[in-house]
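Why predict the complex rather than its parts? Because the way molecules touch one another can change local conformation, and only a joint prediction can capture that. The input here totals 651 residues.
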Amino acid sequence: MTPNAETALAEDTQALVGSDGTRVRLRAEGVRLGYGERVVVDDLDLDVLQGTVTAVIGPNGCGKSTLLRALGRLLKPSRGHVLLDGRKIDEMPTKQVATVLGLLPQAPTAPEGLTVGDLVARGRHPHQAWYRQWSGDDEDAVAEALAWTGISDLAERPVDELSGGQRQRAWISMALAQGTDLLLLDEPTTFLDLAHQVEVLELVERLHEERGRTVVMVLHDLNLAARYADRLVAMKAGRIVAQGPPAEVITEPLLREVFGLEARVIPDPVAGTPLVVPVGTR
Amino acid sequence: MAAPTQPTLDPAAREVLERVPGRRPFRRGPVSGVWRPRNVLVLVASFVVLVLAVALNVGRGEFPIGIPDVLATLFGGGDPSQQFIILELRLPRSLTGLLVGGALAVSGAIMQSIARNPLASPDIIGITWGASAAAVTLIVLGGAGLVGALAAVGLPIAALIGGLVAAIVIYGLAWRKGIQGFRLVLVGIGINAMLVAVVNWLLIVAQVYEAARATVWINGSLNARGWEHVVPVGIALLVLVPAALVLSFVMGALQYGDDTARGLGVRVDRSRSLLLLVAVVLAAVATASAGPIAFVALVSPQIAQRLVGSSRPPVGASLVIGAALTVLADLIARTAFGGVELPVGVVTAVLGAPYLLYLLVRQGREARA
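Output of the joint prediction:
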């Protein structure tokens, strides 16, 4: 075997390891992303480490959702690669990826009249075949996911009759039933009032703490991102400006640079994480 | 793969208990699914209606035959004259209607599911008219030479090509990084109008005899249908309905939109193209046999969906309901107006048009809301 082939094999079988020795689950390597001619993200590198909750923040149009779509193989980079556990994600069978990586698109839509039980059961799709659509394992996983998100008693209700918060819990329950240890959430709190935003993010926190899920999510609210994520990735105009623990990322100079926002940063009186207080322009 | 979750119950209890409300398991060996009694009930009931409709339709005519005699003959009994009248003269007509209706309904169920829009039926967005335009072209150009084997083989093939070309054009024009139901419908309605214009133009330039022949055909007629019309649709259904049933597993995931479906490991573009191909072939073969019978593909899946109470048109129930509807419409067309026999497509159009209006009004309201 030539040395080259050996390294290639090693790369393929060994999990990638980050600078601090933690396993890298997802890696973006010099990716260029865009739609048609328009380039939204260029030459971007990112590591998502095992067991972390990463929140991607940035102003509208900075490419954070585009990045998340690429990490979830919904968008193919025109340059560079996304690696899942060291393998090129778009060379893996998509059904196999779906047993490891689950994703929740922004504002997902359920078919009209669908019940919560049927919605959550759809999460089992990657584990099923046309003749095997409701195995014992499927039922275990769905019953557990419903119970865990506290919506077992809603199972027979149509999804479109639920409140926004309940609906989002149903979708997270579906992602949970999929049984993947990696979860990508694209703005899971949009269209929710503050109480339900907190409720959904506490669910994500529990997923991470009790079920060991690795989570990457796009969030709009900086204070909630700082509280519920243990890593922040701040993006501006398709590039990563800063990344690291919230206390290192959320600083007054960074807010000015990334968001063009004059603000004070004080410790959150409840969680101790950074709290952004805008100064405003007048 | 992740380790399976530990079963919390002993295996026997696991097989019978409904642990997710509304999703009672049905399991035999490697096969499993959700037991939905309402689906089975709808299937059985519509099948009974279908059998009665066929028996009634076969019994009516110059020599009326009672339903018991018809049923006896269909299942192997009856005297020779009854056998001849029923099996040779009348049954092929009803069977053609049954198969054509079933094929159109399954085609409609698939397309409505893919586009998540009931208006995206092959009879609304120009698939059946694509098939018709090609077939009418053949009738007009073929003239008196289009008889026998040439007609039997040429018409279905022309219809198939016409349907496929129409589908490719519509899909291509409507595609913008994915398919959105309303764009597919709008493009399809435009293409449909163009194809109707093409057919009308062909009828004007055609010789009188060919024009008359084509006119009867484009109204959707089951008149003088023999076994040669039964066989092609029968074969198409035999191959494509199982395919549709297998693919309906993926169809369920496609319902959630492209991103969610991809996240669930569905190869969205490939699956959708395959489903579309099945739907187009079914619609084209049906059109080749009986002309573009209107509204069966639109209405049957919607009736089936409401009866079953599902979130998308069910393939099996749509098939049986489409078949029953078409045979019933043929019965009305043959017998409701005394000596005058109408083409079946006229009846389905009269019955289906109000429903189309209802859908248009409702969607217009939703679009404004």
